[in-house]
Amino acid sequence: MTMKVSLSASDPLSVATDVAVIGIVEGASPKAGALAALSKALGPVVARTLKREDFTGKKDQSVELATNGQLKAGRVVLMGLGQGPVTEAQVRTMAAKAARMAQGTKATSLVLEVPYGVPSQTGAGAGERAASEGVVLGGYRFTRYLTGDRLPKSSLERVTLVTTGRVTKETRAAVEVGQRVAEAINLARDLVNEPPNELYPEALAKLCHDMSKDRGLKCTVLDKAALTKRGFKLLLAVAQGSAREPRLIHMVYTPADAKPKKKLVFVGKGLTFDSGGLCIKPAQGMEDMKGDMGGAANVVALMAALSVLKPPVEVHGLIGSVENMPDGNAYRPGDIFGSLDGKFVEIINTDAEGRLVLADVLAYGRELKPDLMVDNATLTGACIVALGMLTSGFYTSQDELAEKMKRAAADAGESMWHLPLLDELRDGLKSDWADLKHTADRWGGSITAALFLREFVGQTPWVHVDIAGPSMAQRAYGIHPKGGTGHGVLTFLKLIESLVHEV
Length: 503
Ligand code: BES
Ligand code: MN
Ligand code: ZN
What we know:
This protein has helices spanning 33-42, 45-53, 88-104, 126-138, 169-193, 201-215, 224-230, 233-239, 294-309, 354-366, 381-387, 399-412, 445-454, 489-502, and strands at 4-8, 17-25, 62-66, 73-82, 109-114, 158-163, 218-222, 247-253, 263-274, 314-324, 336-337, 345-346, 372-377, 392-396, 416-418, 436-437, 462-466, 472-473, 483-484. It is α/β, with parallel strands linked by helices. It is elongated and about 80 Å long.
């Protein structure tokens, strides 16, 4: 059931609802605003509870007040926003936590006060949009394969966002846009969470085709025969061991009524399952490799979001989708394959398959002559070793691009860290038998994977994002549910937004 999100200017405490959530900036006076109104309605219990709970408005603090029938809301929850000024990301996170908390306590309705005056490059309604995104992201659950008692009996059906500003056409539209952007990100989460027996390359291609048709995007799919004809030799090498055929998915968003200011390409690694191939992975945790298409899922979500946001840029979404399996036809260590680019590559470890698939897709993408090409992939365990599970690493061929990415990630509230393309490590990719090999030694494994990709992008301005850690979450945190997160999409949207404002 989809959530109904609406905007209202009434006093949050006067709306009938299961839960009302009010964000409190750190250090806000307990005598001002919402707290004053609460004290007036409920009496000294408010001041006493706050003292007992030691609630100061710090990020991640929250306290619940029973209303004993004195208010229209069944329960009131105060949530800490941290130190002001309040940003879009803070509002989004608070809203997500509020929705998750509400749903977790079986509430079907929620009233949420949107902090007023959130600064924005997007203009009016930034806070409203972020709050709307947050509640839809926070209310996400993946229940497709649950029945009977395992199915949740209630869900958050109605959310009223209360603004202390005015309810206008713009702020209403912002709520609507926020909801649809978040639904796009939830689609990415669904795709990551889908099991690999259901979501295989052909199924992903069909989904992209249908989604594109619904949303007025162009979508072309290359099947195995077409890929063979065109010479995607590395992508096909990885696909050899699987009974499932690979696909290249090419979606295009073009602005309807403006000449595009830029041409951008986004690429996603779409391994619907990565067993490791002949260099098979240990059984422990192998099930998580259903999520090895997190980069592809982000590209799908990004294209869906663009069909809503309609920015004046042309965006190509490319997905290389393959299943990496061991069988009698599987590619082997020692094999040498050509590539779409032309270079020959010696195979060392069949579990380093993502970079092979991406190499061919990047070579295809660069032929579109974009102003910028961005790939994202659950590429290396080494990136998780370097940065932990909550942060992705990005690499780029140009310093100015690194600054733009940093800004975009910070504005989006996604944790991303700039890592270096160390030329010192390039020697590790030298092969005795071919132009290059696809892996070096253990050390700096995320960097050498990026250096390998760099061989295939030519002169195209390029960013590579290794999302291996945050693409899936072991437990819910911030805006993320457990499982697929869609981490990256918000940053890509901010990046596109900043490029639009550039020209
Ligand atoms: N898909 C994995 C990387 C990965 C690991 C993603 C854990 C998410 C969580 C990738 O294909 C892989 O297996 N990489 C190898 C490369 C190695 C063989 C050079 C790795 O990181 O161990
Ligand atoms: Mn692998
Ligand atoms: Zn992989």
